[in-house]
Write the C-alpha cells for this entry.
Amino acid sequence: MIKRRFILNFPPDSGDKPLSYHLVRDYDIRINILKAEVFPGKRGSLLLEMQGTAANIEAGISYLTRHEVVCEPLEKRIRFQHEKCINCGNCTAVCFAGALTIGPPDWELQFDKSLCVVCELCVTACPLKLFEINFQ
Ligand code: SF4
Ligand code: SF4
C-alpha cells in the first residue's frame, strides 16, 4: 500500500457524479480530502490523498481522467526555487503541515512536498517569493 496526493480539477457538470464513491468501491482506494474549493456550476478543485496499491491508484486516476477530471500529482503543482533560498526560516514558521523544516546539523531548508496541504501560506511568507503553487 502506498499513499499519494493529487490535485483534481473537476468540470462544471461533475457535481452529480459519485466519483469518489467509485474510487472506494471499484478500486479499493482509501481517500482523504485535504482541501476543497467547489462552486456549483463551475470548476472545482480538490487536494486528494489516495491510499492503495500502486496499480489501483493508477487505475483510479485513469477512471477519473475518463470522466474529464484533470488529475496531477501534487508535486507537479508546486514550484520552488531552492537554489535562491537564504534559509531564513520564515516559511517554516507558517507551514503547520511540516512540509518545510529547518534545523541541525546544517540549518538548510528541507521541503518534503509529499506533506504539503496547499495552504499557500509559504507563498506570502517567503520574502524572496520563491514558492508558486497552482491549486486551480
Ligand atoms: S503550501 Fe507551503 S506552507 Fe502550506 S503546507 Fe504546503 S509547503 Fe507548507
Ligand atoms: S522563506 Fe523563502 S528564503 Fe526563507 S527559508 Fe523559506 S524559502 Fe528560503
Observations:
- Residues 31 and 50 are 5 Å apart (CA to CA).
